[in-house]
Design goal:
It is built from 3 helices and 6 strands, in the order βαββββααβ. By secondary structure, the chain is of the alpha+beta class. Strands 1-6-2-3-4-5 form a 6-stranded antiparallel β-sheet.
């Protein structure tokens, strides 16, 4: 992280919407052992578009579905963040 970046933990799905509004952002999921999983996420007003860095796949989720998947679990655990 550089001096101009701010480490931000995503609090909930609404906070994620605010962060991603009108842009895509790189997020990280902190995994066991200090490993990170990178996701690039954008919000189009209806669905989240998620590019998974490790697998190179692209998925689209409603807010409800995102909350139920691995990303929602990471947000609840305080393990989902971005560096702006």
């Amino acid at each position: 992280m550089t001096a101009t970046q701010e480490h931000i933990r995503v609090r909930d799905i609404e906070h994620l919407k605010e962060l991603c509004e009108d842009r895509s952002i790189d997020f990280c999921v902190a995994l066991n052992g200090g490993v990170k999983s990178t996701k690039n996420i954008s919000w189009d007003g209806r669905k989240f578009c998620v590019f998974n860095g490790i697998s190179g796949t692209l998925d689209r989720y409603t807010p409800e579905r995102l909350q139920e998947c691995f990303i929602g679990e990471a947000i609840e655990a305080g393990a989902f963040y971005t560096d702006l």
